[in-house]
Amino acid sequence: MTAAQPLPPDSTALDALAAAIMVLQQELPADRLILEAHERRTYECDGLSAYRQTPGAVALPHTREELLTCLRVCREHQVPIVPRGAGTGLSGGALPSATGLLLSLARLNRILEIDADNRCAVVQPGVRNLAISEAAAPQGLYYAPDPSSQIACSIGGNVAENAGGVHCLKYGLTVHNVLGLEMVTLDGEIIRLGGKTLDTAGPDLLALMIGSEGMLGIVTEVTVRLLPRAERTQVLLASFDEVEAAGRAVAGIIAAGLIPAGLEMMDNAAIRAAEDFVHAGYPVDAAAILLCELDGTNAEVSEDIMVVRRKLLELGATEVRTARDAQEQALFWAGRKAAFPAAGRISPDYYCMDGTIPRHQLGTVLERINALSREHGLGVCNVFHAGDGNLHPLILYDANQPGQLETAEAFGQQILELCVEVGGTVTGEHGVGVEKLDGMCVQFAPLELEQFHRLRQAFDPLGLLNPGKAVPTLARCAEFGRQHVHGGQLPHPDLPRL
């Protein structure tokens, strides 16, 4: 479903929502519900603004008890629930339901503990990513995953999508930096997974929850790992006359036995857009640049800089610059982190993709993306986490021009299929949401999708938590034409057909 073609609300579902709202009005403080149409529109989309739907109602609980009330009432009236963090997601994971309750966790925003001895923090899901590092800074600690939206995105949303960032190459994604969760199920059961200890008994449900996009339960508390600040960090900027050479250099650095804290790549279109916006000092004539951050002790960094510089020049870099001071280092990163809004200055709209490929395929995939760009007549800015092969092509289009959104979507789908073709995945850190459902049909076989659905049913047998997201139905995949359906019949008719 896209914003241009929303499904008409079902009258029975609307009646159920109305009944639930009446109960919630009696059991929650008045300011916890948003019911006016013009106020609900604020929540009609996340960062993937091509998909829009005004929610039937919005709840903003301030406590876990109020959240449990929302879950109980919705369960009793069988009203869908769509959890939402800060709304910075880029896959439509928080796209509301017209007959459901959008459950905002923004008011659950307290930092409960900074435990310097155990190098961890306990926070509520509405706490901003950057706020954790700011609170831990006096102890010389920080939280490593740093999405480009870290100034605004919430840790609960990061957990839902398994967010990464420019430093995920060395320090890992959210799943590698979360020690424990408190979550509540649709039935109101409070479950604690993991904690401050190195290991806990039982199956690893903690890893299962991270990246589950709100389909299995609602996270109410997160225990994250904190790391000590490195003695020294240093950023190098390398310019290349060929995109393929930059791709080879990425693989070459890793092959040399080095794991940089960050290794990012931008093509010429992204370089020019970011430079015009941030004035980071990027070489605007370069076909591509690499930003490589090294950290560690002073001696380690000094040695690694020499190795990386030599390797970059051997592999085709035309220039290698080292940031002169902390200010220039921050400016280099500011240009990279502002690449998305910078693209918004040169195009009325852009469609941000998120696929992951093996590093050695970077040059080949970028070449094919450029060929698809010419075929579709839409420009592309390529900016991505090169070290771990996580691509973020920004497809430039104008939604006011008839057919351009549909062309951009088709182009994006081809990019995802290309990622799978070369041995990658349809998402690296943005999640599946509603955007990549067809891509999931390409990547997974029917039996695998069946297991995903059964897992959802084990946690949410009524199918009320974030329905229609992340896992496509077999019926959808059959219609999409990428799955083999035996004899024209779908197996297991008891599975949901959203």
Q: What distance separates the N and C termini?
A: 11 Å
CATH domain fold name of the largest domain: Uridine Diphospho-n-acetylenolpyruvylglucosamine Reductase, domain 3
CATH-level-2 architecture of the largest domain: 2-Layer Sandwich
Residues in β-strands, percent: 15-25%
Rg calculated over all Cα atoms: 23 Å
Tertiary shape: globular
- Please give the count of helices: 17
**How many structural units, i.e. domains?**
5
**Biggest sheet overview:** 7 strands, antiparallel
**Amount of helix:** 25-40%
Query: What class do helices, strands and sheet pairing give?
Result: alpha+beta
What does this structure look like?
This protein is 36% helix and 19% strand. With 498 residues, the chain is an alpha+beta fold. The chain has five domains: 11-104, Uridine Diphospho-n-acetylenolpyruvylglucosamine Reductase, domain 2; 111-228, Uridine Diphospho-n-acetylenolpyruvylglucosamine Reductase, domain 3 (2-Layer Sandwich); 230-345, Alpha-Beta Plaits, CATH 3.30.70.2190; 347-433, Alpha-Beta Plaits, CATH 3.30.70; 444-488, no CATH class. It is globular. Mean pLDDT is 92; it is low at 483-498.
